[in-house]
Amino acid sequence: MPITPPVDTIDYRRRQKIGRIVQRLVIVVSAIVLAAYILAPVSWLVSSAFQTETEIVSIPPHWIPEEPTLRNFEAIFSAGNDEPVTYETRSGADPAAGDFIPSTAENLLPSMANSLIVSILVVILNLLVGVPAAYAIAKIRFWGRNASVYFILITRVIPDIALVVPFFLVIRKLGMLDTLGSLVITYLAITVPFTVFILIQYFEGLPDELDKAARVDGCSRLQALIKVFLPLSLPSLVAVVLFTFLTSWNEFLLALMFTQTSASQTLPILLASFTSDFTVSFSFLNAAGVLAVVPPVIVAIVFERYIVSGLTAGAVKG
Amino acid sequence: MARIRFTNVNKKYANGFHAVRDLNLDIEDREFIVLLGPSGCGKSTTLNMIAGLEEVSDGDLIFDEQVVNYVPPHKRDVAMVFQSYALYPHKTVYDNIGFGLKMRNASKEEIDERVQDAAKKLEISHLLDRRPSQLSGGQRQRVALGRAMVRDPSVFLMDEPLSNLDAALRISMRAEIKELHRAMETTFVYVTHDQAEALTLADRIVVMNDGVVQQIGTPDDIYERPANTFVASFLGSPPINYFDGVLEAGPDDEMAFVRDGLRLVLPADHAARLKGQEGRAVRLGIRAEDVAEGTAEPGYNALSGTVNSVLPVGSDQYLGMDFGGEELFFRVGKDLRHAFGESITLAVDLNRLHVFDRETGQSLIWNAA
C-alpha cells in the first residue's frame, strides 16, 4: 500500500519556508537600520569635512558635497603659520564662508601628537604591567590569589567621575598637573584592571600543562610566558591593545581636569574647545573630527581580524 | 643518570589539602617505577614534585646526593610527557621536539641531528612540518615522547601518557615505552591508574591512596602478596572477592578460615604465619582467577552457590555467583557452560588465599614476616 504523507506535513513545510524567509528579511532589515544608525553621524562628519560652511548649513543638507573642498584641512595644517588668530584679525572675515577658524586651531596637530604619545604609552605600559600580572594570577597558586582578582574587579565598579577629585589631589601633590605623565598614570589606573581581567580569562583557558611543559623544557616562568603564552594569546592581546588605545584616545573627563595648555592637551579637549570659541566653524570642526577618527580607524583596520576572536576568547573560558 | 630519593616528603596545599603524606621512596638509577593509584591519590603530585612543578612542603627530595627541593624545573635534568601531550600548538612538530634543546642553547646542527634521529625512531619523520592540530592522537603522543627523549634527560617522567589513546594503540605504545626505557637506559617514573600498564611496564610499583604509599614492590609482589585490602582490590580484574569469617585452629598446627557452612584449610606456610591468631575476625580474599570448577566437597575447600550472571569476555568469562547472599565474581574458562540460577561448586586454590585483618585491612600473611 503506498504511503501518503499526511496533509499537515505539506503545510508545515511551507510554513517553515516562509518562516525562514521572514527571519532572513527581519535580520537584513535590522542590520541595515542598525548600520545606518551607526554610520549616519560618521558619514555626515566625513562628508561635511569636505564642504564649505555655506554648504554645511544649507537645507536640505548635502550628503554628497556639491563642491568638495580641501580648504578645511588646509586651514588645519596651515594654522599658526599666519598671524595669530584674534577677535580683531577675524572681524573682517565672512562667517558664512567659514573663514572663522578657532583661536586654538594651531594647537590641533600638537594635541594630536599628545593624544598619540599618551595612547601609545598607555598601551605599552598596560601590556608590560598587565601581561605578567594576569599570568601570575592565572597560572601561579599563591595566597590571596582570588582576593586580588576581586580587588582588581572592584576598581572597575567605581565610576570614573568619583575618582576625578582623588586623582586630581594626587596629581597636584606630585606636581604633575598639565603634563602628559598625569594622563598616562590615570589612564593606566583605569585600563590596567580591564587588561588584567581579560588576560586572566584567556590565560586560564590555556592548559596548565603547556606552562608545565615549557618549564620542564627549560623555560623560566618569564620565558614560558614570552615563548609559549604570548604567541597563543595574540587575539586577547590585540583586544587589549585596541581597548586601551581607544580608551586613551577618546578620554575626556580626566584630560579636562589635568590639562590646561597645549603642552598636554589631548585631542578631545581641543575639539571640545572649538565649540566654545567666539564663533563655531562647523567645516573646520568636522575636518578636525575626521582627523581625530583616522588613527583609531587605522588601528582597528590593522587588527580587525583579531578583534572578535580576541574578545570572545577572553570572555568565555575555553 | 639519576637516583631519586624521597625522605619524609609531604605536600600540603594552601587550602589545607594534604596531597602526599610522609613519602619515603628510593628510586634506583635506570629503574622503571610506576606510581599507581586512583584519582586524587597523590601520584601526579609526586611526579610534579620530581619535575619541580610542585614545591615540597616538608622533607627532602634528593637527586643523587643533591637536595633539589628548591631547584626550579628548568635547572633539573628531567623531561616529562603529559596526559594531554601539551604540545605547543603554534609550533611545528620539528620545533616542538627541538624546543627543549633550543632552550638549552644547543647548536642548530645538534638540534637538527637529534630531532631527525628521534623522529626516525618514532616513525614521525614525515610529520615534522605539521602542526599538532593536524595530527592524530597517536601521532601527538609520539611527538610528546620525541620532545622528551630528544633531550636525553636523567629522569624521564610520564603522567598517564596513554590514557587518551584507544585500547589497541595503548597496548602497542606500552611496548614502545618499555623499549624506549631499555634503549635510553635512564630512570623512568610513570604515573597511571591503569593496573595493566603498571604490571606490564614497571620494575617496581608504588601503590598510593589518599596521599599515602600503600605498598612498594615488584609487579609480582603487588599482585601476589598485597599488603592490604586496598592494594588487593586495586589490582585484578574482576576485583578480588572478600568475605568475612574467623580463623580456627585444627589438629597438627592446622589453621582454617571458617564461616557459616564453609571451611577453607589454609596451607601450612600460611598457618605458620597465622599461628596464635585463632578466633581472630578476618577478611578472606580470593582472586577471581583462583578457583576452578572441581569435584571438591561443597563447603570444604570449595564454594557453592548459584550462578547469577555469565559475562563472556572473549578469552574467558566472568561468572557471577550468589554465595549466601553475597555476590562473588570469578574468571573461569570459556568452556564452562552455566545458566542463570544453576548450582555450582568451585574449588578454591588454597595456596593463593589472602587473609586480612577485618578492622585494619592489613594482610596477616604477607605483613607477618
Please give a quick description of this structure:
Chain B: InterPro entries: AAA+_ATPase, ABC_transporter-like_ATP-bd, ABC_transporter-like_CS, ABC_transpr_MalK-like, ABC_transpr_MalK/UgpC-like, Mo/tungstate-bd_C_term_dom, NA-bd_OB-fold, OB_MalK-like. The complex is a heterodimer of chains A (318) and B (369). By secondary structure, chain A is mainly alpha-helical.
Topology diagram in text:
The complex is a heterodimer of chains A (318) and B (369).
Chain A lengths: L6 H43 L3 H4 L14 H8 L8 H4 L17 H32 L5 H11 L4 H14 L6 H26 L2 H9 L4 H12 L1 H17 L2 H6 L8 H8 L7 H34 L3
Helix pairs in contact in A: 1-14, 3-14, 5-8, 5-11, 6-8, 8-11, 8-14, 9-10, 11-14, 13-14
Chain B lengths: L3 E9 L5 E10 L4 E5 L6 H9 L6 E6 L2 E2 L10 E4 L11 H11 L4 H14 L15 H13 L5 E5 L7 H18 L2 E6 L2 H7 L2 E6 L2 E6 L1 H6 L4 H6 L6 E9 L5 E5 L2 E4 L2 H6 L7 E6 L4 E3 L8 E11 L3 E8 L2 E8 L9 E6 L5 E4 L12
Parallel strand pairs in B: 3-8, 3-9, 6-7, 7-8
Antiparallel strand pairs in B: 1-2, 1-4, 4-5, 9-10, 11-12, 11-14, 12-13, 14-20, 15-19, 16-17, 16-19, 17-18
Helix pairs in contact in B: 2-3, 2-4
Protein name (chain B): Glycerol-3-phosphate ABC transporter ATP-binding protein
Family (chain B): Belongs to the ABC transporter superfamily.
Organism (chain B): Thioclava sediminum
Question: What features would you describe in this structure?
Answer:
Chain A is mainly α and 318 residues long. Chain A is 72% helix and 0% strand. Chain A starts with 6 loop residues before the first helix and ends with a helix. Residues 310-318 of chain A have low confidence and may be disordered. Chain B has two domains: 4-233, Rossmann fold, CATH 3.40.50; 238-357, Beta Barrel (OB fold (Dihydrolipoamide Acetyltransferase, E2P)). Chain B has helices at 43-51, 93-103, 108-121, 137-149, 167-184, 195-201, 219-224, 229-234, 268-273, and strands spanning 4-12, 18-27, 32-36, 58-63, 66-67, 78-81, 155-159, 187-192, 204-209, 212-217, 241-249, 255-259, 262-265, 281-286, 291-293, 302-312, 316-323, 326-333, 343-348, 354-357. Chain B has a six-stranded mixed β-sheet with strand order 6-7-8-3-9-10, with helices on both faces. A five-stranded antiparallel β-sheet of chain B has the order 13-12-11-14-20. A five-stranded antiparallel β-sheet of chain B has the order 15-19-16-17-18, with no helix packed on it. Chain B starts with a strand and ends in a 12-residue tail after the last strand. The chains are: A mainly alpha (318), B alpha+beta (369).
